């Protein structure tokens, strides 16, 4: 049976134009802003350029100004956008906005779509997703969710503390996960709320200093302090928040893999260029066996990562849960991308560690990916449990 993994012509064209745009427009801007998080003016400049090039928000439906790409189409385009750290921001496909748009498209009411999705898709506002809490609250185990929402006259009152909330500072709204029934440790009982950032009950407590710098708006600790929201702030159904989180997290895991695979490609290209130029021990670096092995291992990691992303994306496009395939792909990609960037830096020697080329920065940016969207250990644990369950069920037949 022939298997054709190539994207359809319109998607291939979009991916090719994205690749050109990223190299010709985004990378020069990125190089000018080497060490810092870009300003709001830079975000707008890049997004205007992407809009002008017809590349903006490719994942959202045409009625919201996008190209309506499915997950496999996203795989091709997002990998090209990810070649530059600021590429995803330029196309309005950076985390957490991209994942939030995906979820709003699927579960928001028509009124919520007009109020939140439309300006988000247009790049007029940003957003954040507030789930993780300081210990002993929700982290790898979301059931530990401690933030609570109680019914009050006309709506809900949210109380709790969140941290590592990417993009919270400057966001127009937050999607906040709070417990509406049960107690910490229970399987269900969570609800998602749309909270406007000017709500006096939602407070940015501090910016958390982290290894990475590029995810726009940084990572904040956020306090929901008697935060009153109206009844129509509920996103989806009450007590169904954990189920909706999976609607967001499976695809969001994959789009993170797609974007960071772009950085792995970029790191590999820098290393291969260096291996072709640098002379030592009477030959080019690239003629030495151990360097060839590193280059080959990186190529294998990149190809395998792409294959796993496509497999999981295909399942998601079929409407399947993709729980196992996204966990496998996320775990492999987060580790493989790290290995590729690390090997590339090694091939470049001291130049790799220097600020003259971006490999040190790439390394800092990709390291947290082994923790967010589920740490590798949480995914391995879940993968193994599913395999064991499958065997137990098969043995019982
Ligand atoms: C840069 C960055 C951005 C983030 N952005 C957001 C955001 O926008 N919104 C949001 O809600 N959250 C965000 N997070 C939080 C992220 O989702 C959590 O860090 C993640 O879910 C892990 O939770 P935790 O940090 O509390 O680690 P813990 O739950 O304390 O886990 C600690 C460690 O325990 C180990 N572990 C976990 N499960 C198992 C297991 N089953 N078996 C064995 N060992 C295990 C792993 O090594 C793990 O790293 C972000 C995190 C980072 C680093």
UniProtKB/TrEMBL annotation:
Family according to the record: Belongs to the acyl-CoA dehydrogenase family.
Protein name: Acyl-CoA dehydrogenase
Keyword Magnesium assigned: no
Cofactor(s) in the UniProt record: FAD
PANTHER family registered for this protein in UniProt: ACYL-COA DEHYDROGENASE FAMILY MEMBER 11 (PTHR48083:SF13), MEDIUM-CHAIN SPECIFIC ACYL-COA DEHYDROGENASE, MITOCHONDRIAL-RELATED (PTHR48083)
A UniProt-annotated Pfam family: Acyl-CoA_dh_1
Keyword tags: FAD, Flavoprotein, Oxidoreductase
Keyword Zinc belongs to the record: no
Entry-linked Gene3D superfamilies: Acyl-CoA dehydrogenase/oxidase, N-terminal domain (1.10.540.10), Butyryl-CoA Dehydrogenase, subunit A, domain 2 (2.40.110.10), Butyryl-CoA Dehydrogenase, subunit A, domain 3 (1.20.140.10)
The organism of origin for this protein: Pseudofrankia asymbiotica
CC per GO annotation: cytoplasm
Occurrences of domain Acyl-CoA oxidase/dehydrogenase middle (ranges): 128-210
PROSITE patterns recorded: ACYL_COA_DH_2
Subunit organization: Homodimer.
Domain Acyl-CoA dehydrogenase/oxidase C-terminal: 239-388
Domain Acyl-CoA dehydrogenase/oxidase N-terminal: residue ranges: 14-124
A biological process from GO: fatty acid beta-oxidation using acyl-CoA dehydrogenase
């Amino acid at each position: 049976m022939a298997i054709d993994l190539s994207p359809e012509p319109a998607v291939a064209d979009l991916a090719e134009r994205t690749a050109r745009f990223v190299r010709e427009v985004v990378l020069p801007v990125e190089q000018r802003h080497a060490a810092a998080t870009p300003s709001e003016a830079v975000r707008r400049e890049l997004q205007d350029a992407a809009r002008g090039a017809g590349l903006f928000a490719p994942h959202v439906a045409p009625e919201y100004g996008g190209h309506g790409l499915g997950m496999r189409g996203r795989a091709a385009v997002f990998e090209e956008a990810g070649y530059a750290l600021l590429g995803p921001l330029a196309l309005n496909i950076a985390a957490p906005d991209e994942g939030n748009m995906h979820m709003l498209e699927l579960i928001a009411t028509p009124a919520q779509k007009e109020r939140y999705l439309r300006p988000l898709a247009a790049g007029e506002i940003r957003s954040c997703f507030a789930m993780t809490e300081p210990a002993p609250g929700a982290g790898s185990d979301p059931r530990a969710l401690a933030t609570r929402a109680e019914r009050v006259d006309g709506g809900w009152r949210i109380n709790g503390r969140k941290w590592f909330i990417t993009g919270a500072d400057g966001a127009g709204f937050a999607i906040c996960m709070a417990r509406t029934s049960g107690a910490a440790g229970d399987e269900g009982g969570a609800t998602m709320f749309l909270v406007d950032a000017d709500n006096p009950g939602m407070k940015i407590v501090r910016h958390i200093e982290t290894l990475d710098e590029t995810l726009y708006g940084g990572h904040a600790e956020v306090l929901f302090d008697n935060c009153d929201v109206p009844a129509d702030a509920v996103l989806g159904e009450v007590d169904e928040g954990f189920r909706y989180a999976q609607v967001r997290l499976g695809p969001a895991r994959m789009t993170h893999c797609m974007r960071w695979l772009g950085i792995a490609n970029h790191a590999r290209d820098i290393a291969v260029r260096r291996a072709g130029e640098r002379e030592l021990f009477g030959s080019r670096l690239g003629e030495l066996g151990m360097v060839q092995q590193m280059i080959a291992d990186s190529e294998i990691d990149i190809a395998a990562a792409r294959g796993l992303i496509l497999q999981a994306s295909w399942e998601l496009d079929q409407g399947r849960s993709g729980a196992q395939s996204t966990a496998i792909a996320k775990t492999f990609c987060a580790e493989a991308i790290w290995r590729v960037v690390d090997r590339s830096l090694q091939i470049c020697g001291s130049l790799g560690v220097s600020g003259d080329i971006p490999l040190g920065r790439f390394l800092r940016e990709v390291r947290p990916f082994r923790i967010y969207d589920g740490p590798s250990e949480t995914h391995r644990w879940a993968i193994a449990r599913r395999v064991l369950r499958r065997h137990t069920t098969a043995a019982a037949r």
